[in-house]
Design goal:
The chain has 2 domains: 2-206, 2-Layer Sandwich (VC0802-like); 221-372, Vaccinia Virus protein VP39 (Rossmann fold), CATH 3.40.50. The protein contains 11 helices and 15 strands. The protein has helices at residues 11-21, 67-81, 106-114, 124-151, 153-157, 192-195, 221-231, 250-257, 272-275, 307-319, 338-348, and strands at 2-6, 25-28, 33-37, 52-56, 60-63, 88-94, 171-179, 182-188, 240-244, 261-266, 280-284, 296-301, 323-331, 356-358, 366-372. A 7-stranded mixed beta sheet has the order 11-10-9-12-13-15-14, sandwiched between helices.
């Protein structure tokens, strides 16, 4: 059995995506969590799931009535399968008590409270439960470390605390508490985690902190930052970028900060300081009609347009090898646009097998497609 954490408010859409792409048993469990069974080679790169946050492969249900018992169960499983000479990472996180972004509206919550149904997940009591869950996870982690120090000191020394992309020698252990006394344990042995960057993220529950920079023209720059993190590749100094639909200039702003050269294309001007930047060339015109004179290092595009149009732009640029890497926003309104997203996955796989297509933590009603073709 495998467990999948959905992007905020996307549990139903992830369930539908799984049913379309991976035939087999799929069922929603607690809010935001789907349990599933299907056959796949977990050591081979799998196609992206747009609405997935984090995957727990071969997850085993556990009953953990105490902190000590939880640590002992995890310890017993680790020493049986983890090589003592290879690095590994451990995440212990709670998945109960926190507010579900897809929770009922105010009227529904009032009705639930009136008839004494489930507690309002946005209440202070729910927040206290979430805090208690994270505290419990911290205590389990401390107890596990103590056991390793006493009984498997060398294995304990191999543990890595990092959010860098997984190395080919690293295994990944996840303990997801679904209640104070129940959880799921997943042990994904090397080189599996390094080969599934689209499914397994080196951040707890797959949640990447949203970048903040008050000097940026808008908060949209956070989408580009997160795409870089997930890809494991940042825009470098001296590289050439094309930013389509650039105004007011957040993505150009980030590329210029990295030391790159930017050609910004839009009908509207960027912010004044960006327009005056020595490494920015502004082209006034339609973003969808622009064609560079030579291959560029990065295609950047964050425009409001139909998902089919943005998807076709990515396909055209990659097929005609106009760029080496790309980050493009795909707007959508929900499950109605799932067909366009599935078509993009299928067509892009022919020219760019390692691309990402993800509902980012920084996204709202959209996803981002990003990757490299050379």
């Amino acid at each position: 059995m495998h467990a999948f954490l959905a992007a905020d408010g996307c549990e139903a859409t992830l369930l539908e995506e799984l049913r379309r792409t991976h035939p087999g048993f799929h069922q929603a469990q607690t809010p935001g969590l789907i349990q599933s069974e299907f056959d796949a080679d977990w050591n081979q790169s799998l196609p992206p799931l747009v609405f997935l946050r984090q995957a727990l492969f071969q997850a085993v249900p556990l009953k953990v009535d105490s902190i000590r018992l939880a640590a002992e169960i995890v310890f017993d499983q680790l020493v049986q399968v983890l090589p003592e000479s290879q690095p590994w990472r451990f995440h212990c996180v709670a998945h109960y008590g926190a507010r579900d972004p897809g929770s009922p509206g105010a009227r529904a919550r009032f009705t639930q409270a009136r008839f004494r149904r489930t507690p309002d997940p946005s209440s202070p009591e729910a927040n206290k439960t979430a805090d208690a869950g994270q505290h419990r996870c911290h205590l389990i982690e401390e107890a596990l470390v103590e056991l390793l120090q006493r009984k498997r000191r060398h294995l304990g020394r191999q543990r890595v605390d990092s959010t860098d992309p997984f190395a080919t020698t690293e295994s990944f252990v996840q303990l997801l508490l679904t209640s104070p006394t129940q959880g799921l344990l997943s042990i994904h042995l090397a080189p599996g985690p390094s080969r599934q960057p689209r499914w397994v993220v080196p951040f707890q529950k797959g949640d990447i902190p949203i970048a903040v920079d008050k000097a940026a023209p808008s908060r949209a720059f956070a989408k580009l930052v997160e795409s870089e993190i997930r890809m494991g590749r940042k825009i470098q100094a001296g590289e050439f970028c094309v930013d389509l639909g650039a105004a007011p200039g957040s993505w150009s702003y980030l590329a210029l900060q990295r030391g790159a050269h930017v050609t910004a294309v839009d009908r509207a001007h960027l912010r004044d300081d960006l327009m005056d930047h020595s490494k920015l060339e502004f082209v006034q015109g339609d973003a969808f009609n622009y064609v560079p004179s030579r291959m560029v290092d990065w295609l950047l595009c964050d425009v409001i347009a139909a998902p089919e149009r943005c998807a076709q732009l990515v396909i055209d640029w990659t097929r005609q090898k106009r760029c080496r890497r790309f980050v493009v926003t795909i707007k959508f309104s929900g499950a109605a646009d799932l067909n366009a997203i599935q078509n993009l996955k299928r067509e892009l796989a022919e020219v760019c097998p390692e691309f990402f297509l993800q509902r980012l933590c920084a996204n709202k009603n959209e996803a981002c497609v990003f990757g490299a073709i050379v």
